[in-house]
Amino acid sequence: MKVLVVNCGSSSIKYQLLAMTDESVLAKGLVERIGMEGSILTHQPTGKDKVPLKADIPDHSKGIEMVLAALVHPEHGVLKSMKEISAIGHRVVHGGEEFADSVLITPEVMNALTRCIEMAPLHNPPNILGINACAKLMPGVPQVGVFDTAFHQTMPKYAFLYGLPYEAYEKYGLRRYGFHGTSHKYVSQRVAEEMGEHMTNLRIITCHLGNGASITAVKYGRSLDTSMGFTPLEGLVMGTRSGEIDPAIIPFLMKKEGMSPDQIDNYLNKQSGVLGISGVSSDFRDIEDASAQGNERAQLALDIFAYKVRKYIGSYAAAMGGVDAIVFTAGLGENSPPMRDKVCNGLEFLGTRIDPEKNNVRGKTKEISVDGARVKIYVIPTNEELVIARDTKMICSALV
């Protein structure tokens, strides 16, 4: 079985084609600047050079059409025909309380995704566009929705409810949903394998640290709590997102600056985080470079981020009654030894300490805690596409 994994953003499409007999990646790529000038598809067959394909890409349907054409191209393609694609797996950001697991896409599911748009107005519409485009171009090929929120549907009410009148939850679904679920699920499974244990025997804290960042307490195989909330804005300070703040700041700023609801939303989502603190960039690599050159605000941004991560790790260890493993993943978590060291400096009370030599690793699975540490620390590269492909294979195999 060959599975096409599709991740549609507002102006982009990431994709991978996997052969599920051995879970190998046959090709991957990125469509960028959809609906804008300079739109391009960068296609890469495994083991070969990237192929840039510039074209006018007005919408997601055209983008998907170009992806399929690239996959069957006589020179840089990896398929003889589109009929070789057995199923399509889509990353869908918000499933609300409607979905606790991945599902086969049906008209009823599409209606539910539409209902969830108001909870993820930036993410769900392009996800829906991608599903519709694939249905149009590959009629009859089964499609599966894999939700960022699904892994966190095991959270108990005392963890996911806010201190609002209960009617706000009943009427509007105002609660913590959590995101990056496929990543947290994957790395918690992988660390259990590395430790020679089963997830159901372990208390794991997974740290998905990138431009978007979240932390999850995985207790005995189930998400107990997670840092992102009703939207991906809550929780840690991130690249451009403020993370958790005193909610009274919002009306205060709206009055002082004369901001509309859309403007304050943009301010908190696009102008805040380490970008707003440092004044340098939302990219942690740029901030680390600026800090090394003596930029005090850049250093402050790094200090704040590490402190927030460390606070969450400590609180989640308390919530689970202990911790057996801490995992770092995603762009920053996988590739920044200094940030990992900074986060873990002060967690010795938990029974763990980073080994500086082992910590000198980027983008590879490795234990980085000192020998004999009671709590293990790991770096594990995430692979959300593989999770999506596996779920798609499992659901579609049952259709035969």
UniProtKB/TrEMBL annotation:
Mg(2+). Can also accept Mn(2+). ATP binds at residues 14, 208-212, 283-285, 331-335. It catalyses: acetate + ATP = acetyl phosphate + ADP. Keywords: ATP-binding, Cytoplasm, Kinase, Magnesium, Metal-binding, Nucleotide-binding, Transferase. Its EC number is 2.7.2.1. Catalyzes the formation of acetyl phosphate from acetate and ATP. Can also catalyze the reverse reaction. This is Acetate kinase. It comes from Anaerosporomusa subterranea.
